[in-house]
């Protein structure tokens, strides 16, 4: 089921310059051309994708390799709180956990980022100052994306002004499903420009895109528009991140780099709760795109409860026994 796009299909240098919306080639000059390109991508064999994901999910790793995988997964976590009841105190507590996930073991690595609503980005930035841990903020009328472009861009600028150095935007799924691809493309370009120096993660909300073909097309659309990461889900609907969807997105970033020379990250989010889930994803990354993506710079987990299970499994490897539930904090 794996298809590699012919690099000649999209010549190097045709990707829009990040933040400028410039250097658009014929693919992105019109809705008709963009539609023709996206629908000309190889179709996804859904049965094949599901079988491949299931096979990779059965791989078992032990001892030293498992210890490496757990620490790598911890370093890839975007520790997340996205609730209406979030408070500055909760964000500070989350930031403390992000800096030192296991206070009893200083060898545990810090996480990649803390992800919050934009109005709390300043609290996170202050709490994480000097740590190198990123502050990610959701924006563009998260999670629905149902707002005017003017409002969405104001949302992005506000989050960046508050201290976010990563923005997680949502695409307009209604426009995408209606085939208004250029509209979605132009909105991503505009959001990227509003991000300034902040990195942009583009949330596809694959559970609403219905098909794996749509997940592939949306992945390519987001990358053509300048997204630094493509992200599966908001975590607010089901299904969220699934292994077949992640496989399709990994194939897309692999093919995009082969075609353009530009590497884009992947972030599965929603429903990834256990160490076993995380390890399955890391195996898939290694088998599909290779070690180049086995870094927080190129692969993240959007999660809230995953970190606790990783820490409990880490201590089991270190001490030979599981800790009680009070070993990890309740987020």
TrEMBL record:
<dbReference type="GO" id="GO:0004139">
    <property type="term" value="F:deoxyribose-phosphate aldolase activity"/>
</dbReference>
<comment type="similarity">
    <text>Belongs to the DeoC/FbaB aldolase family. DeoC type 2 subfamily.</text>
</comment>
<protein>
    <recommendedName>
        <fullName>Deoxyribose-phosphate aldolase</fullName>
        <ecNumber>4.1.2.4</ecNumber>
    </recommendedName>
</protein>
<dbReference type="GO" id="GO:0009264">
    <property type="term" value="P:deoxyribonucleotide catabolic process"/>
</dbReference>
<dbReference type="Pfam" id="PF01791">
    <property type="entry name" value="DeoC"/>
</dbReference>
<dbReference type="InterPro" id="IPR002915">
    <property type="entry name" value="DeoC/FbaB/LacD_aldolase"/>
</dbReference>
<dbReference type="InterPro" id="IPR013785">
    <property type="entry name" value="Aldolase_TIM"/>
</dbReference>
<comment type="pathway">
    <text>Carbohydrate degradation; 2-deoxy-D-ribose 1-phosphate degradation; D-glyceraldehyde 3-phosphate and acetaldehyde from 2-deoxy-alpha-D-ribose 1-phosphate: step 2/2.</text>
</comment>
<keyword id="KW-0456">Lyase</keyword>
<keyword id="KW-0704">Schiff base</keyword>
<dbReference type="InterPro" id="IPR011343">
    <property type="entry name" value="DeoC"/>
</dbReference>
<dbReference type="GO" id="GO:0005737">
    <property type="term" value="C:cytoplasm"/>
</dbReference>
<dbReference type="GO" id="GO:0016052">
    <property type="term" value="P:carbohydrate catabolic process"/>
</dbReference>
<feature type="region of interest" description="Disordered">
    <location>
        <begin position="1"/>
        <end position="23"/>
    </location>
</feature>
């Amino acid at each position: 089921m794996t298809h590699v796009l012919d690099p000649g299909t999209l010549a190097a240098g045709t990707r829009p310059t990040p933040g400028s919306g410039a250097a658009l080639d014929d693919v992105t000059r019109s809705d008709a051309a963009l539609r023709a390109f996206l629908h000309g991508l190889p179709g996804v064999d859904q049965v094949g994708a599901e079988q491949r994901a299931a096979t990779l999910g059965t791989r078992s790793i032990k001892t030293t390799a498992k210890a490496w995988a757990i620490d790598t997964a911890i370093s890839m976590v975007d520790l997340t709180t996205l609730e209406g009841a979030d408070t500055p105190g909760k964000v500070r507590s989350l930031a403390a956990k992000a800096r030192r996930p296991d206070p009893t073991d200083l060898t545990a690595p810090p996480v990649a980022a803390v992800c919050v609503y934009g109005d709390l980005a300043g609290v996170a930035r202050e709490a994480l100052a000097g740590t190198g841990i990123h502050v990610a903020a959701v924006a563009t009328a998260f999670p629905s994306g149902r707002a005017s472009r003017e409002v969405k861009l104001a949302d992005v600028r506000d989050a960046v002004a508050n201290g976010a150095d990563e923005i997680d935007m949502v695409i307009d799924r209604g426009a995408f499903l209606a085939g208004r691809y250029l509209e979605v493309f132009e909105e991503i370009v505009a959001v990227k420009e509003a991000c300034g120096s902040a990195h942009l993660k583009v949330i596809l909300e694959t559970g609403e895109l219905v098909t794996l073909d749509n997940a592939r097309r949306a992945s390519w659309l987001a990358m053509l528009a300048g997204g630094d990461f493509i992200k599966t889900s908001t975590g607010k609907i089901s299904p969220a991140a699934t292994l077949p969807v992640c496989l399709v997105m990994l194939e897309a970033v692999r093919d995009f780099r082969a075609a353009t020379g530009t590497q884009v990250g992947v972030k599965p989010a929603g429903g990834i709760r256990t160490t076993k889930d995380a390890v399955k994803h890391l195996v898939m990354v290694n088998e599909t795109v290779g070690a180049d993506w086995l870094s927080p710079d190129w692969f993240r987990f959007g999660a809230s409860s995953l970190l606790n299970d990783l820490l409990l499994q880490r201590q089991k490897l270190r001490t030979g026994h599981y800790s009680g539930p009070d070993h990890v904090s309740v987020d």
